[in-house]
Amino acid sequence: MPIVLLGFMGVGKTTTANLLNLPVYDMDQIIEERIGMSIADYFRFKGEAAFRQVETEVLKELLALSADCLVSTGGGVVKSEFNRQLLQKNKENNVLLTASFDVAYERISQDSQSQRPLFLENSKDDFETIYQERMSLYQGLADTVIDTDDLSPEHVARKILCK
């Protein structure tokens, strides 16, 4: 079964995944390839509901993989009750990466590579509300929880490999 990295945007899922010596399936990248455009554009043209449907399809496919691999999820994958049920079945193989709001916000604001619609379209206060809502949805979905505030991506990767 795959190891699934969960967590809010800015906690280091993609960065950490790329440091591990496992095949990596980045859900956001797979979704962008499937929809033929950036997630930000898809949100704008099709809406969040359409995006979440594609996200669920991709999650189901990746959780069905039998090979040792790593799945890096998007930060909103837990918004869907169905996705949370799927993830609950994989709980022992899920790793929740966390960061305080201030650290996550700073990392996202420094990331010039990624256009994150929720970050770009919300005030800092509204974005913090989204963060708090999502953090409550992650609870209970992973046996392993790693706070990344003061850890390098390499240290996080070592913790995952030692779990």
From TrEMBL:
It is found in: Cytoplasm. Pathway: Metabolic intermediate biosynthesis; chorismate biosynthesis; chorismate from D-erythrose 4-phosphate and phosphoenolpyruvate: step 5/7. GO terms for molecular function: ATP binding; magnesium ion binding; shikimate kinase activity. Substrate binds at residues 28, 52, 75, 134. ATP binds at residues 10-15, 116. InterPro entries: P-loop_NTPase, Shikimate/glucono_kinase, Shikimate_kinase/TSH1, Shikimate_kinase_CS. One of its GO terms (cellular component) is cytosol. Transmembrane segments: none annotated. The keyword Metal-binding applies. Binds 1 Mg(2+) ion per subunit. Keywords: Amino-acid biosynthesis, Aromatic amino acid biosynthesis, ATP-binding, Cytoplasm, Kinase, Magnesium, Metal-binding, Nucleotide-binding, Transferase. It holds the Pfam family SKI. Its EC number is 2.7.1.71. It is an enzyme of class 2 (transferase). The keyword Kinase applies. Mg(2+) binds at residue 14. Its cofactor is Mg(2+). It catalyses: shikimate + ATP = 3-phosphoshikimate + ADP + H(+). One of its GO terms (biological process) is aromatic amino acid family biosynthetic process. Catalyzes the specific phosphorylation of the 3-hydroxyl group of shikimic acid using ATP as a cosubstrate. Belongs to the shikimate kinase family. Monomer. This is Shikimate kinase. It comes from Streptococcus suivaginalis.
